[in-house]
Amino acid sequence: MKKTGSIIFPLLLFVFFVVPIFANAFVFNSNLKLGDSSVEVFELQKKLNTDPDTVVAFSGAGSAGNETQYFGPATLSAVVKFQNKYAGEVLAPLGIFSGTGFFGSATRQKINSLVSNTGNAGNTVNTVNTVNTVNNTTQNTQNQIVQSPTTPIFATQTATGFTGIEQFNIFAESENDKVQLAFLSTNVGVQGSTLEFSGTGFNLSSNTIYFGSNAISNIPATNANKISMTIPASLSVGVYDLEVGNLKGKSKSNAYFVVTNAGAIAPKISSALPQTVSLGDEVTLTGENFTPTGNRVFTSFGEILNLASSDGKTLKFRLDAPTYIEGFADMFTTADFEMKIYLTVVNTNGVSDRNNPAIIILK
Amino acid sequence: MKRKIIIIIFLITTLIGPSVFVAKEANAQSLPSFGGVMTIVKACTCGTLGLLISVSPPSGGLYLYSPKFSRLFMNYRIWTGSWVLGLHTGAPVGCANVHDGYCTVQGPPAQGIITMVGTS
Fold first, then answer.
1. Under a CB-based contact definition with an 8 Å cutoff, are residues A354 and B76 in contact?
2. How far apart are CA A296 and CA A348, in angstroms?
3. What's the pLDDT at A140?
C-alpha cells in the first residue's frame, strides 16, 4: 500500500502541475495548409478560437469546443485573419501584404509566441499594454520596462510627480555634450511650486531656464540629466514654451509649462464632435473653463494655437493634415485607414485631464 | 515515506511552479525598448499602414507606429521634436509606398512595430 502511494502521489502531482503547463503551451512545428488533417490542425483551431478576431466558426464544426482535425476553408479563412492581424510581424518581413492562409514558419513563430504567453491570441497587445512603469539603471541606455497593472506609461511621471532619472534614465553619458529637454514632472504649477525635468547636457552649477522670453538664470542641476527648480514669483500667469540653455547651447524642444493662479480650475473637455472626422472637418469641443483667448488644443499630430472661446464652454477648430508628416494625406485616403486622435486643451487655467483625453477617430 | 513525499512536493513547487510564472512574464518583458527624440515622421501608405518614426539616441532607430496596433500614451504627441519612450515588436518591417503603381518598400525597414509608446 505504501509502495502504491509512493507512485500514485507523485503521478497526481505530475498530472496537476506539469501536464497543464505543457497543455497550455502547445508548440506548432509543421506547415499546415488547406486539406491537411492532423492533431496540429485541431490545436490550431483551438488557438484561433481564443481570439475573437480569428474565430474559425461561431457554431458547428470548428467552433469553440467543436474543433476538428481538418484544415478546411473556415480554418484557412481564420488563418488569413490571423496573418492580417499580425501582418507587421508575419507578412511584411516576407514582402507580403495580405494573408495567404498558408500556415508556414512566420505564422507558426508568431502563434507559438502567443501560446507561450497567455494562451490567448488576442491578449498579446493587451498584455503589453498593461506594461506601465519604466525602470532603468543609469548604466544602461536600453531602458527596461517592468509590469505594473494600474497606470499607463508616464502616468507616474505626470500624475504623481516626477519620479525622475532614477525611474527612466535613458540618457547615455555620451549624449551629455548636447543640451536637450526631455520629460517634465508636470506641465502645470503655481509660483513657488517645484518643477523637475530630465534631459541631457545640464550644467551642474548654472543653467538658464527659458519660460518663453523670460530667462531664469543660475539654476543648478542635480546631475547632467536632471534639474529641479522653483517657479519664481516673478513669473506671471501664462502658458510658456520651455527650454534649457547653458554654455553647451540651448535645447530645442516642444515642451511647455503653464503658470496658473492658486485655485484655478483646469479646463475640462466634456465632448468632442463629430466623433468620426475627416481631414479638413471642423471639430467642436465643449466643456468648461476655456479662456476667452489663448486656448491651445493639442492633437496627436500638432498644436492649434490661440483659439478663442466666447462662452468659456466651446472651442472650434479645423483638423488639417499634419504638414510635417510626408505622405499623411495619401495614407488618409487608403480604404481601411483609421486613427485615434487624442485631444487636450491647455490655457492659463491649466491642462485638461490627460488621463482621460478626448478622442476622435480620423478616417 | 512522508519524507519522500515532502521532498517531491518541495522539488515540484520550487522548481516547476515558478517557471510557469517566469514563462508567462518573459514574453511581455522581452519586447525591445526604444527612447529618444522623434526626428522624422513619414507615412507608410500601403501594405502595413503607419508612420515611420525615426528616433535619435539615446536609444534610437526606425520604428513603425501603426494606428491599429500601437498604443499611444501621455502626452499623446507623435510630433517631430517630442521625446518618446516605448516598446516595439523587434520584427523588422518595411515602410511601403506606392511608386509607379506598385507597393514598394524604399529605404531601410523599421526595426519593429511600436506596441506602446509614451511621449513628452
1. yes
2. 10
3. 29
Q: Which residues of A touch B92 (CB under 8 A)?
A: 93
Nearest to A129 by CA among A99, A97, A152, A112: A152
Rounded to whole angstroms, how far apart are CA atoms A177 and A172?
10
Residue-wise pLDDT for A59-68, tens only, equals 788 888 888 8
Nearest to A203 by CA among A175, A254, A244: A244
Q: Is residue A40 exposed (0-12), middle (13-18) or buried (19+ Cβ within 10 Å)?
A: buried
pLDDT band at A162 (very low <50, low <70, confident <90, very high): very low
Alpha helices (H) along B12-118: 17-29
Q: How confident is the model at residue A187 (pLDDT cuts 50, 70, 90)?
A: very high
Task: Report the DSSP beta bridge partners of residue A41.
Answer: none
**Chain center to CA of A343:** 15
Helix (H, G, I), strand (E, B) or coil at A36: coil
SS3 of residue A198 by DSSP: strand
**Residue (of A127, A128, A77, A87) closest to A107 by Cα position:** A87
**What pLDDT score does A99 carry?**
67
Given strand A226-230, what is the order of strands in its sheet?
A180-184, A194-200, A226-230
Grid cell in block for residue A268: 475640462
* Confidence (pTM): 0.61
Please name the residue of chain A whose CA is at the shortest distance from the CA of residue B70: A125
Cross-chain Cβ contact A92/B47 below 8 Å:
yes
Q: Do B29 and A147 touch (CB under 8 A)?
A: yes
Dihedral sign for Cα atoms in the order A72, A75, A81, A87: negative
DSSP H or E run through A74: helix A73-85
The interface predicted TM-score (ipTM) is 0.73
State the helix-helix crossing angle for A105-115 and A73-85, rounded to 10 degrees.
80
| Residues A291-304: tens digit of each pLDDT | 999 999 999 988 88
Calculate how close chain A gets to B99, using CA atoms only, in Å: 12
Task: Indicate yes or no: CB of A183 within 8 angstroms of CB of B37.
Answer: no
Q: Which residues contact A100 (CB under 8 A, 6 or more apart)?
A: A80, A83
Residue type, A324: Y
